[in-house]
Amino acid sequence: MKTDILVRRLYEHAFALGFDQIGICKANLPNHYARQLREFVHQKRYGDMNWMKEKLDIREHPKNLWPDVRSVIVVAVNYGPENNPMINLEHNDIGNISVYARHRDYHDIIKGWLKHLAQFLIKEAKAIYPDIQVKVFVDTAPIMEKPLAMQAGIGWQGKHTNIVSRQFGSWLFLGEIFTTLELPAVESSTMHCGQCTRCLDICPTQAFIAPYQLDARRCISYLTIEHEGSIPIEYRQKIGNRIYGCDDCLAICPWNRFAKNCRHIKLQPRTELNNPLLAELAQLNEEEFRRFFSGSPIKRIGHTRFIRNTLIALGNSKNITLLPSIKRWLNHLDPIIQETANWAEKTIQI
Ligand code: B12
What we know:
The protein is α+β, with helices and mostly antiparallel strands. It has helices at 3-17, 31-42, 50-54, 56-59, 62-65, 106-125, 145-151, 198-202, 220-226, 233-239, 248-251, 278-281, 286-292, 302-317, 323-327, 335-349; strands spanning 21-26, 71-78, 96-97, 134-137, 156-157, 163-164, 172-179, 208-210, 213-214, 242-244.
């Protein structure tokens, strides 16, 4: 089979499986990405995501992860929400969960689809390329997924640092198939943010030190998901009712006028996670937390961080009727929970 027919069949199969965009690039990245990544690590903008530092050399270049890789097939899945997620930020008695975490864990779903697509590729290509090898990734390996997506024509890295697509705006998950097969690369995407700075301006914690440069240590997504200890006092009020992740820089992007609702049944939000009451979330003990968030990415942060975040939102609610939800954690054995509960008890009354 000729390569162009193989690629056409691969694209058709990808769309049938559920992917919304697909593109191919060489397993190479322009040198400036490695330089900028090193700068990010050098300035310790990764906070306590130490794996960013430990795997720096590998992350710099796809071939450092797998020397035999020749081509990268990048796929994207649209998870566009039905409503503007920023509406939730106005309701102080609910916890705002970022759009990507309101449904089943995307890693599980996309990994499944990627494995099917990789199997299909092997089956179709084997007659001509018997030695073909593949590896699949979705946010699971030390590689720079966004620059690869840009090279593969999926979209460009916006000033908020995430991929923006002409077809789907800012609401895309990314995944990759690395292969030893030499495939024709598409044209790389070009940048289209122009003079717009809306994503930079809206960030509640001013996490962007410059366009295209995020200091993760200030990012609410990092603070509520990745950061393990107490959340620094200076960010607590700015976090508002965001209890898991943040979508402000994505949601404000003007390119979302082209966004479409997510078409995948498996990625539809659980209704109880669209606007959950803080009072109910604060009732969850460890076992209930694990059961309630089974299959959800939220389970990954564990009970302590989840209650820590919920307590911050409760404090920020300034809704004194919610005080009992804080009080039950005041004497908890975990020092992070106890300290945050004390802060929330004072803050709710100011
Ligand atoms: C670490 C990480 C985070 C960290 C740090 C984010 C970051 N911007 O680095 C935290 C926890 C904060 C985070 C948050 C989120 N994440 Co995240 N995250 C990652 C991860 C694992 C690595 C990203 C990385 O390499 N960062 C290192 C820094 C150096 O990269 P960078 O910020 O992109 O910087 C580059 C450019 O900005 C550029 N650059 C630097 N300076 C300059 C200057 C100029 C002039 C120019 C033009 C360019 C430029 O060079 C840098 C190197 O490439 C990827 C998965 C992966 N393996 O790639 C997912 C990933 C990026 N995350 C994703 C998502 C969905 C999110 C959230 C939206 C989740 C949420 N709702 O809370 C937020 C978005 C916050 C944001 N604005 O970035 C998706 C993004 C999909 C997309 N459309 O692009 C990814 C790709 C996972 C996936 N497979 O889908 N994430």
